[in-house]
Design brief:
The complex is a heterodimer of chains A (about 290) and B (about 300). Chain A is of the alpha/beta class and about 290 residues long. Chain A has helices at about 100-105, 145-155, 180-185, 205-210, 230-240, 280, and strands at about 1-5, 10, 30-40, 40-50, 60-65, 75-80, 80-85, 90-95, 115-120, 135-140, 165-170, 190-195, 200, 220-225, 245-250, 265-270, 270-275, 285. The chains are: A alpha/beta (about 290), B alpha/beta (about 300).
C-alpha cells in the first residue's frame, strides 16, 4: 500500500488518474466536412475531429449522434474508413449505409453541421509480425473498416509484404464500394455480385473457398467483415483449416464503452458458452469463437 | 463583489454528499469506463452496477433497443459477483473523494441478507442501495418490489445484516408506489430511491419477433421523466425519510425538477450513455441555477414546489 499526498491509500502506490488525459467537449464533437451519397443508400462522411482520434487503429469505431435532435436518441456505432492527421487534429472518413431510421437521419446532415462523436472505441485488428499475405473478405458495407486496415497495411508494407488480396461481394455492381481505394493500396481484387452484374455471380465466400488451399496458414491472416449470413459461411469454410481469421462483429449499442452491457454476443470458449461485449471485448473477434443464432 | 459559491452539500440520513448528483446503477459500470470523460471526485456519489452473491451472466442477446425518447434494456443483472467486486473493482474506486454506494440484489430473501453482510465493514463502501425489482424465485418469480410485505421483508433482512445506510430502490411497476414506500420506511429503510425502469416491450414488425430476446425490458431515458417526477412527488409526501429522484435526467433542468419536487438528491442513468459528461454538466448546471436565483444552499431549493 502506498500513501499519496492527500493521504488516500492507493493499492500499489500509483495514482491511476495519471493514466487519463481527460477528454474535453471538443474531443466529443466533430464538424462535418462532407456527407455525400456515393451509391444508392450509401454515404461517405468526412469529419474534422480532435487530436484524440489521431491514434485510432483499424477495427476501431466511433459512436455518432446528431446534435440537438430528439432522434436518434442513442449514438450509432460506425467503423472508421480512413484517417489522416490534420494539424493538431485529424480527419476521419466514415462509409455507411442508411440501414434504418438512425443512419437515415445522419445521412441528412450537411457540410458545416456539428455531430457528437465518441471514440476511438473498441479494439484494433491484431497484426502478426511475420504476416506475408493479408486476405480481406468484405460483404456489402463490410468493406468500410477493411479499407482503413488496407490503408495502414500499405503504409507499412515492405517488398517482403504483406501482399493484400481483397474478396469483395455485393448485391450488384452499384453496391460495390471502396474498390478503387483498395487498388490504390496495392490490393489484388476479386469481385462477386449476387446478380452477376460484376465479377462472379454468387456469394463472395465461394471465391475465397476456391483459393483457401493456396494460402500458407502460418503466414496469412484473414480479416472479414460483412452481414451475419456471410460471416457464418466463412466460419464453416475455415472450420477445418488452420488459418487465423479475425472478424468484425456488430450488435446494437447504447454506450459503446462497456458501461451498459447491452452489446452482447455469444462465444464458444474452452469452458463453454460465454458472453462478450462487442464494444470492449471486440469488435474484433476470432471467427472460430462466434456462436451464430 | 465576487459571488459566493452556493452550498451544495446534502444529507441522505447519515450519508453526506458533496452535491446531490450521483450515477444510477447499471449505467456507469464500476466507474472506470467514465474516468477518461469525467472527474469522479466531483460526483456526489457513485452507485455501481447491481451486485449479487455470485457472478451472473445476464440475459441472452439482443438486450437493448432504442425506443422513442429512451431505450429498453433486458441486461439481466449481469455482474461480477460480490467477491470480485470487492477484490477487483472497489480498490480502483476507493481512490476517489466521493461516496461509493453499492447496489445489491438477490433472488431470495436470504441472498439479499448475505450480499449485504458480505459488503458490510468493507473499507470504502458508504451505503447500500437495494434493488427490489427482482423476481423472488421462492415465490413463483413474483417481484419483491411489487408487494408491500415482500418489500418490507427485504428491507428488514438487509437492515439487520448491515450497519451501512440502506437506500431501498423502488419499482415503478406498481399501482401505488406510496404503499411500498411506507412499508420500506416501516422496515427501517434510511432512504428511498426511485424510479427503477418501467416495464415495456417493442416488436420487430418485419420479422414479427420482439426486439429483445427476453421479450420485455425496462424502459429508461427522457421518456420516463414525467412519470418519475410524479412518483417522487407522491412519495416525498408519504414518507419522512429522504427520497432520491431517478428517471430520464439528461441535463440540470431535469435534475432541478426532482429537487424542487422534494428529492434530496438525484441519480443520472441513461444520459451517461449518450453524453459521458452528463453528470459534470448537471453538477455545474445546478450550481449556476442556484447562483442565478440567489439561493445560497441547495437545501433551500429541495421541496420548494409551489402548488395551490
Ligand atoms: C462496431 C460497429 C461498426 C460498424 N461500422 C459500420 C460502418 O462502418 N458502416 C455502416 O454502414 N454500418 C456500420 N455498422 C452498423 C451500423 O451501426 C448500423 O447499421 C446502424 O446502427 C443501424 O442503425 P439505424 O437506426 O439506421 O437502423 P435501425 O432502424 O435500428 O435498424 C436497421 C437494421 O439494422 C440493424 N441494426 C441496428 N443496429 C445495428 C448495429 N449496431 N449493428 C448492426 N446492425 C444493426 C437492425 O437489426 C435492422 O435490421 C457498425 C456496427 C458496429 C457495431
Ligand atoms: C442498461 C441499464 C442497466 C441497469 N441496471 C440496473 C441495475 O443493475 N440495478 C438497478 O437497481 N437499476 C438498474 N438500472 C436502472 C437505472 O439505475 C435507473 O433506475 C433507470 O434507468 C431510470 O433512470 P434513467 O432514465 O436516468 O436511466 C439500469 C438501467 C439501464 C438503462
Ligand atoms: S454498448 Fe454499452 S457495453 Fe457495449
Amino acid at each position: 500500500m502506498g500513501s499519496s499526498q492527500d493521504g488516500i491509500d492507493r493499492i500499489d502506490g500509483t495514482d491511476w488518474k495519471d493514466e487519463y488525459s481527460m477528454l474535453t467537449k471538443a474531443d466529443m464533437t466533430a464538424t462535418i466536412l462532407a456527407n455525400a451519397e456515393v451509391a444508392p443508400e450509401h454515404y461517405l462522411m468526412k469529419l474534422a475531429v480532435s487530436g484524440a482520434f489521431r491514434d485510432a487503429q483499424p477495427g476501431q469505431f466511433v459512436m455518432l449522434r446528431p446534435v440537438g435532435r430528439g432522434f436518434p436518441f442513442l449514438g450509432r456505432p460506425l467503423g472508421i474508413y480512413s484517417l489522416a492527421e490534420n494539424g493538431s487534429g485529424a480527419r476521419i472518413e466514415i462509409l455507411y449505409r442508411a440501414a434504418g431510421r438512425g443512419t437515415k437521419v445522419i445521412s441528412t446532415l450537411c457540410e458545416g453541421d456539428r455531430i457528437e462523436i465518441l471514440g476511438p472505441l473498441g479494439n484494433r485488428f491484431e497484426l502478426k509480425p511475420g504476416m506475408k499475405t493479408a486476405v480481406l473478405v468484405a460483404g456489402g458495407i463490410g468493406i468500410a473498416p477493411l479499407v482503413f486496415l488496407a490503408e495502414r497495411l500499405s503504409a507499412k508494407a515492405t517488398p517482403e509484404g504483406p501482399k493484400m488480396i481483397l474478396y469483395i461481394g455485393a448485391r450488384d455492381s452499384a453496391n460495390l464500394l471502396g474498390i478503387d481505394r483498395m487498388k490504390s493500396f496495392g490490393a489484388e481484387v476479386r469481385v462477386s455480385t449476387d446478380d452477376g452484374s460484376a465479377g462472379y455471380e454468387g456469394p463472395v465466400t465461394d471465391l475465397f473457398r476456391e483459393d483457401l488451399l493456396s494460402f500458407n496458414a502460418s503466414k496469412t491472416e484473414v480479416f472479414v467483415c460483412g452481414p451475419n449470413p456471410m460471416l457464418k459461411r466463412m466460419g464453416a469454410i475455415i472450420a477445418d483449416h488452420p488459418i487465423r481469421c479475425q472478424v468484425l462483429m456488430e450488435e446494437r449499442m447504447a454506450c459503446g464503452m462497456g458501461a451498459c452491457l447491452g452489446c452482447t454476443i455469444e462465444v464458444r470458449t474452452p469452458t463453454g458458452v460465454e458472453y462478450r461485449q462487442v464494444c470492449t471485448d471486440g469488435p474484433v473477434f476470432d471467427l472460430r469463437e462466434i456462436i451464430w443464432r | 463583489m465576487a459571488l459566493l459559491k452556493p452550498r451544495t452539500e446534502v444529507k441522505i440520513g447519515s450519508l453526506v454528499l458533496k452535491n446531490p448528483v450521483m450515477t444510477a446503477s447499471g449505467t456507469f459500470g464500476y466507474g472506470e469506463e467514465y474516468a477518461p470523460y469525467i472527474d469522479l471526485n466531483r460526483l456526489g456519489a457513485v452507485v455501481v452496477k447491481g451486485i449479487s452473491l455470485e457472478p451472473r451472466r445476464g440475459n441472452p442477446p439482443p438486450r437493448i433497443m432504442e425506443t422513442p425518447g429512451g431505450m429498453l434494456n433486458a441486461i439481466g443483472l449481469q455482474n461480477v459477483g460480490v467477491k470480485a467486486f470487492i477484490g477487483d473493482k472497489l480498490p480502483w474506486l476507493r481512490q476517489f473523494d466521493t461516496k461509493i454506494i453499492v447496489n445489491i440484489f438477490g433472488e431470495t430473501l436470504e441472498e439479499y441478507g448475505k450480499v449485504a453482510a458480505a459488503l458490510s465493514g468493507v473499507d470504502g463502501i458508504h451505503a447500500l442501495e437495494v434493488n427490489i425489482s427482482c423476481p423472488n424465485v421462492q415465490k413463483g418469480g413474483h417481484v419483491f418490489g411489487c408487494d408491500p410485505d415482500a418489500s418490507h421483508g427485504v428491507t428488514k433482512i438487509v437492515k439487520s445484516a448491515t450497519d451501512l445506510p440502506v437506500i431501498v430502490k423502488l419499482s415503478p411497476n406498481v399501482s401505488d408506489i406510496t404503499e411500498i414506500a411506507r412499508s420500506c420506511e416501516a422496515a427501517g429503510a434510511d432512504a428511498l430511491s426511485l424510479i427503477n425502469t418501467l416495464l415495456g416491450m417493442s416488436i420487430d414488425i418485419e420479422r414479427r419477433i420482439p426486439h429483445l430476446r427476453n421479450v420485455t425490458g425496462g424502459l429508461s431515458g427522457p421518456v420516463v421523466k414525467p412519470v418519475a417526477v410524479r412518483m417522487v412527488w407522491n412519495t416525498v409526501r408519504a414518507v419522512s425519510i429522504p427520497v432520491i429522484g431517478i428517471g430520464g435526467i439528461m441535463e440540470s433542468d431535469d435534475a432541478l425538477e426532482f429537487l424542487i419536487a422534494g428529492a434530496k438528491a438525484v441519480q443520472v442513468g441513461t444520459a451517461n450513455f449518450v453524453n459521458p459528461k452528463a453528470t459534470m454538466e448537471i453538477v455545474e448546471g445546478i450550481e449556476s441555477y442556484l447562483v442565478r436565483h440567489g439561493i445560497g444552499d441547495v437545501n433551500e431549493l429541495i421541496g420548494s414546489l409551489r402548488t395551490e
